[in-house]
Amino acid sequence: MDTTEQFEKESALSLKLFVVLTRALESIEKQVVNNIKSYGLNLTEFGVLELLYHKGDQPIQKIGQKILLASSSITYVVDKLEEKHFLSRKACPNDRRVTHASITDEGKQLIEEIFPKHAEALNEIMGGLNAKEKELMIDLAKKLGLHAQGL
Amino acid sequence: MDTTEQFEKESALSLKLFVVLTRALESIEKQVVNNIKSYGLNLTEFGVLELLYHKGDQPIQKIGQKILLASSSITYVVDKLEEKHFLSRKACPNDRRVTHASITDEGKQLIEEIFPKHAEALNEIMGGLNAKEKELMIDLAKKLGLHAQGL
DNA sequence: TATAATTAATTCGAAATCGAGATATTTTAA
DNA sequence: TTAAAATATCTCGATTTCGAATTAATTATA
């Protein structure tokens, strides 16, 4: 096989991988969203609350980095969660440009209720793979993500 | 290891897989979107055009099934593409409920220009994995997606 | 120190997506 | 054969996300 052919084959694989991954994640997310929306949250809101619950108070801008969301979008999501009383904004004493988002007791209570069910549902949704395969896929996804991120 | 412990471990893996996959695909899509938007298309529009180019005319509703989009959203996307003269609607002679979407010459020209570059870019974006790993991941993603879809 | 560059959060308008409901047509079944 | 159920598309209003521009505060630099 010459180099051109080699390259064609590799490209076809990359394309295929992209399509298959996209479709798989669409199906998975559809399920997850369904589970979470019965608690009045969307996936982004859940992600933000979960982050605050497990990692503690965060500068608003840090949240955007972790959830991969534009700064204007975080403002919007934090507004929504604040309206629902699941988090509160707290001025940062060191740097007056910064606002911290902090999960409320009500928010904690919600996450403590949702999270185990979310984990269980996710486990069913991911039931197409066994433990070994999941570990394998985690490694592959990490490699893939790291490379793509660094471009 | 007892069954509870087993289950906890499996759940943790599922959770991790979900997070890692989501992050990876976010990074990948960000790159792909950047490449495509320089041609005035978003990812959905590109997907629709590409489908029509490679699979021929399609009933509007079929498009939604393949791209995983709500019927109201397809109407919107097809409107956009029609405005840009990349596709046209054609009444179905057999079933008057149905409208076919058909790629125009202008649309074909665009896809013929974009697609090779898209494939090449995607190949770089996916450069974190070698061919064997890609094949492996394709299989895993297929399994995962099929199972999630069937729930 | 004064000025310039950077950073954090917000506002605003536009785009993309959804779900519920409407309309037209076709298919099923009583 | 007619009435009921199903199907395809579209309209409409609401939600979520984005990018560009704005404001305020901090840090770097001349």
From TrEMBL, chains A, B:
Q: What SMART domains does this protein map onto?
A: HTH_MARR
| Domain HTH marR-type: residue ranges | 14-146
Q: Which UniProt keywords apply?
A: DNA-binding, Transcription, Transcription regulation
Q: Which PROSITE patterns match?
A: HTH_MARR_2
Q: Which GO terms describe its biological process?
A: response to stress
Q: A Gene Ontology molecular-function term?
A: DNA binding
Q: Which SUPFAM superfamilies match?
A: Winged helix' DNA-binding domain
Give one Pfam hit by family name.
Answer: MarR
Which PANTHER family did the record assign? Answer: HTH-TYPE TRANSCRIPTIONAL REGULATOR MHQR (PTHR33164:SF56), TRANSCRIPTIONAL REGULATOR, MARR FAMILY (PTHR33164)
Q: What is this protein called?
A: MarR family transcriptional regulator
